[in-house]
Prior knowledge:
The complex is a heterodimer.
Chain A: H1 2-23, H2 29-75, H3 78-83, H4 86-128, H5 130-137, H6 140-177, H7 179-184, H8 188-240, H9 246-287, E1 312-320, E2 326-335, E3 340-344, H10 351-358, E4 369-371, E5 374-375, H11 381-387, E6 388-391, H12 402-407, H13 415-424, H14 428-433, H15 451-464, E7 469-473, H16 481-494, E8 497-501, H17 505-509, E9 513-518, E10 521-526, H18 528-534, H19 537-553
Parallel strand pairs in A: 3-8, 3-9, 6-7, 7-8
Antiparallel strand pairs in A: 1-2, 1-4, 4-5, 9-10
Helix pairs in contact in A: 1-2, 1-4, 1-9, 2-4, 4-5, 4-9, 5-8, 6-8, 8-9, 13-15
Chain B: H1 20-29, H2 34-66, H3 71-120, H4 123-128, H5 131-173, H6 175-182, H7 185-222, H8 224-229, H9 233-285, H10 291-309, H11 311-332, E1 354-362, E2 368-377, E3 382-386, H12 393-400, E4 408-413, E5 416-417, H13 423-429, E6 430-433, E7 442-443, H14 444-448, H15 456-465, H16 469-474, E8 482-483, H17 492-506, E9 510-514, H18 522-536, E10 540-544, E11 556-561, E12 564-569, H19 571-577, H20 580-593
Parallel strand pairs in B: 3-10, 3-11, 6-9, 9-10
Antiparallel strand pairs in B: 1-2, 1-4, 4-5, 7-8, 11-12
Amino acid sequence: MGTTLSLAIPWTVKQAIDALQTRGRAAPLGAYVALILGCAAGNGVARLASRFAIAGAAQHVGADVLSRLYAAFQTFPPAVFARYSTGDLMTRAASDVSAIRSLLGFGLISGVSTALAFVGALAAMLAVDPWLTLWAMAPVPVLVLLARRYTALVTVRTHAMQERLDELSTLVQERLAGMGVVRAYTMEPRAMAEFAAANGALRDASTALARTQAHFTPLMGLVAGVGTLIVLWAGGGAVVGGRLSLGALVAFTGYLGYLAWPTVALGFTLSVVRRGLTSMERIQQVLDEARPAAPADRQHAPARPAAREPAIRFAALTFAYPGREPVLRDVSFEVATGEIVAVVGPTGGGKTTLGLLLARLWEPPAASVFVDGVDVTTVPLERVRAALAWVPQEAFLFSRALRDNVTLGRETLDRAATERAAGAAGIAEEIEAFARGWDTVVGERGLTLSGGQRQRVAIARGLAGAPPILILDDVFANVDTAKETEILAGLRAAAPTILVMTHRLRAAQGSDRIIVLDGGRVVESGTHAALLARSGLYARLWRIQRLEEEIARA
Amino acid sequence: MPDAVLDAEHDEVLGRAFDRRLTARLWAAARPHHRLVWSSMLLFPLVALVELAQPYLLKVAIDDHILHGDWVGLTRVAGLFAATLAALYGLRMLEAYLMALTGQRVIHDVRATLFRHLLGLEAGFFDRTPVGRLMTRVLSDVEAVSEAFTSGLFAIVADVVTVAGVVVMMLWLDWRLALVTYAIVPVLFAVAAYFRLRARDAYREVRRRLARLNAFLQESLQGMAVVQLFTREAHERREFERLNQDYRRALFGSTLFEATLYATVEALGSVVLALLVWYGGGRILDGALTFGVLVAFIQYTNRFFLPIRDLGAKYTVMQAAMASAERIFGLLDRAPAIVAPPAPRAPANASGRAAFEGVWFAYEGERWVLADCSFTVAPGEHLALVGTTGEGKSTCVRLLNRTWDVQRGRVLVEGVDVREWELERLRRHVGVIFQDPVLFTGTIEANLTVDGAGGAAALQRALATANAAALVERLPHGLRTPLVERAANLSHGERQLLAIARALVYNPAVLVLDEATSSVDPEAERMIQDAMARLMAGRTTITIAHRLSTIQNADRILVLHRGRIHEEGTHGELLRRGGLYARLHELGAGAARG
């Protein structure tokens, strides 16, 4: 409708001029003026309405795509996060979604209005004078062909430019990341020379691209210009010959002017569309990584297991990360309900992997990891994760209030439960000592807290939900031994079953049973005293740690 | 943190679209290309002139020829019109090309300045600033700044020239009709200013909410495991959805103003058209105006309105450009903390002597890593530094080649305080072999050679000494074999050998060896040890030992503990003393068996 109304304006001007010419004073000028104003107002309203509708819809779609992406991110296991960097995923969520928004918003508005403008203006021109329309449109095919040739060249050169840009960014990234070596070997002049070469190559490629692109907009301007020229000459001739009215001639120049902008914008519209389509593919690629919503139960999940079943059982568990040697080989042991078991051993022995498999962040082989007697791979994820709390080595805190970091928005957790958990984790007093107490907002990635404090907040988070099973992965790295023993004693009261992975044997000393893991295998197990008596790996590790303590005290 | 370069939030904040101080600096940065800038500027009036001639030709055609039935005259005018078309095509192309050329050259120069500046900054800066953020400065911010020229400065000048030309042409053709047209200008400006202001606020809100959405998303991605473990996905999704919708609403608000401005300006254009038909039509009837002038006026009006309509887009571009410029200049203004003195002292001889004299050092505040640490290395001596992790062994390396500066005390090389040396000379004098042998993309030759240190023969000798000659020969293009990113086409052991060859080429008087902790297979280990022994022969060497097994033959062993030298002696002496070293040794032996 907007198009029709705006096309009516040149037509009204034509009528007015014709009337002025033929009827002189009798011409109803006021009526024409009113008509122009009416059309303009109507056009404005219609255009605004359509723009809001389309842009609004595009923004809705953009928000929906972003929501879907986020939901997909939430299902990604660590394996997928290992393949896509945070930066990559951020780019997809920001730039690619924005490109889709542009495609549906600007792309659609521009595409539709270009199409309408062409159809409408052509129809209007044909109505005024078919013969002159033919003349005016004559140069269009030639120019379209020329434009296509340029577009092809632009694509080639854009590629070339992109390659140079990639080279430059690799170079910058590498030199900046390896600044220590650059500095130590006084390679600054060489780095600068290499940078200058890549930078120059990029400039040349960009300039070559610009030289091609410089043709494009003027060329499109030429389409409109040549049309006007033909109208002026052929149309003017027709007016001279009396075959055309002056008003019709003016209307024609008006229509051609009307077409000029969409023609010029065509190239830009096409690039927006192309980018949008590429972005759609990139987003789909990430969406395809999402884990299916509800993990299909491989077999019928058994009813509540018998009370005799151990809380945790590993049965001949062998596990390897994709494309690597197994990190766990034939591991079998149990943790009975109410027991504290410590897993110790040298770094790289597979301690962390045990926790990852229990929490099913990585998928264990079927029938090898059991929680409460149930194979974890046969039950929905939520059920496994509700049964246990796993506190990882690296404590991740959100930049939110401490309380929210502990509750994570769990509605079931009241104030008292939260503070009890913090007490058991040995962090309550420190939190209350902060100026803003529980409302203290954690800085970027929890940097305002010390490493030990962060770990204890993470332990409180794990304890708060009163999980039947607690798994601690080397969480006492930044806590001194005395504090560690104290916390462990508190935990015994708070959580019934505890599995502790640690490389500090002092912490393991007080547990009911100790499993020694080396090279992915269980090499020893038993109580502290029994293991010392065996004088095997555990006894050796114990001696080393005693030495380390002595050195630290020296 | 008040530091604009380090502040992540700062990336999202947009300020003014015009800042006199920044603009002056930008203008100065473009100085080498001022001739190019001025030639583009000269083109603008030319383009405007030709562009504005077209409606005038139309007027002439109508008034003087069409209405008089003059076919020949019309053809002549049409010919002139064709000429303006050709000229316009050529001029516009040249204009676009010159503008892009200027932009690219400015990008190129600013990028080079920035990179050179970064190369001179101290290690402390790189420890605090993620490489990703610096990449953004060097790659995208620089591009945004060039937009200040192409879409900002140039476009504004071009618009002003065009509008001025239109004003003059209209006044010249018919001043009465021109004044009628201008009657709308105050309204136009009022409307534009009003919407501009509202749109700017709306746009700021969009940026603010986008920053919040992105910050949330980034943190979510990093902490996803926590969310998954506690099955808090739904809760987080709700929060994300709230921010997502907040952003969408802000975006729509901004669209609202942008689109309304657009539509209003367009409608005002039609109002002017109506005015022209009404007033101009009347004057034609009075015989005071010709049809041609009216038609030309209609066309001029269009050209008058276009720049005003597009003002919004330009404003946004300028805002982004200024924000980028501010970040770039902020980085450039950060003076390097470690520089050579204006008059560096050259050491008398290069025998290979070094000493720490009461050195106190902390990476931050008062957390001393070294506290009153003193020791000396005699020419040709093989010294080993041992101690538990985090005791500051590697810090000693960084102080020796002045990667960091001490807070108290002195580090002497050849009897001269390292702070009095010329930096490049010092670093060529004190060579370091790092734990992780870093090689860069580029050929092996480019990685190993340095200006002014031997030639092809020296390089071959170094390769042979470092047991790396056979390895290089095996590669498809020998020395010219290109290394891929992180030298992933070589094994760790091979990279280690090349790093030794590199040190041999540099031939430093004092060698610091930060022992590798990662293990390689026994054969590679043997070759590395062998090459290392030849590198160390007759050269002052300080070994930062992470494994005690490799330093038993050292002339002297220093045990670093609590920031100072705790024990000192040969392997045998220290073992007999039964102190810290003896325990460390026992520990190492125990760990090796474990």
